Give the backbone structure.
Amino acid sequence: MRLGRRLAVLPIRLYQLVVSPALGTHCKYHPSCSRYAIESVRAHGDLRGLVLASWRLLRCNPWSRGGHDPVEAQRLFRPRPRARAA
């Protein structure tokens, strides 16, 4: 994983390891918002991934239904074409 992505994921991992166990699981979505954030950074890069994670956090509120919401189902960004192996 590139340095930018690692730096973007680091505070999320710290949250998962330190804060989340103390608070317990309260996320309405599956995968959890922190897991979604990591998956979105890995799939879409640091900037787009953090935009998707922020959008997810805004949607995670008492008035949302929650449920299954994978990174692949997002509609803000089109998937990037993968590089072909030579």
Observations:
- The mean pLDDT is 86.
- The helical segments are 3-23, 33-44, 46-59.
- The CA atoms of residues 13 and 68 lie 21 Å apart.
- The first helix runs from residue 3 to 23.
